Amino acid sequence: MELQKTITKGYAEQLRNDIETNASMYAGDTFDIDDSKILYVPHLGHPEGLLEKMNADNDFESAKALFEAYSNLTPLQATQQAFWIYLTHTELFPYVQKRWPKVKEEGDHVNYIIDHWFFGHGMIRNALAGLWWAVYLTIDSDSDDPYKYTQFFLSNYTLRVVRLGPTKLMRHKEGVIGIMQYLIDHKNDSSTNSMEDRVNYVVSYFNRLGGAKQLAFLDRTFFCNELDKVHDELMYYHHKVTKEEEDVVAEDE
User: What is the dihedral of CA 181, 187, 189, 194, to 10 degrees?
Assistant: First the structure.
């Protein structure tokens, strides 16, 4: 079995520090890295043919392929930024470039590169880590349709990147699944607001509730039932979008 490669933490930091110098390389067909900085990940096999399964036009398809290719990756390993930085710059560089093509346009793309090739705003906006964690935190292995919640979560970029994805609530899998189930059950209900409005309400609601309850110990049924209690208010809530939220979406459009 061929082991999966990665790079040293120090070299990952060096690549990030050298973005301004190397910015033009992100527009090329490949990105050359220093082979002397490569390491191997113990007990993690290298998947064959993953790049061909990645689809820059379909985040769900790509997330599923990536997660299944690295299904043996432990959560601890998945927090290692150097691993994902290696993949974004080498094996999956062509996919990342197609998914985030602004690097081929004229202009200053340093922050854009930091967000999607590195970790400017945490795991969720990294081109690959964000996909893997989206599956890990939403997959329901006991269900006949294990990717039901994943597909819904990945169907709305604003939902996962601006609103629910970056929150602490996203780390509680049972809570996320309970919230997704409620939103799926009511996605076609008549109302005056958008899915983004509803997610904003949900996140704010549980942030407040978390001050009085230990949400980390509660299951999906609790989260679903709790939202049923405030259904009428939730379905007519309108969120005032902040400039920061507008900027996040605008950067990636």
Answer: 130
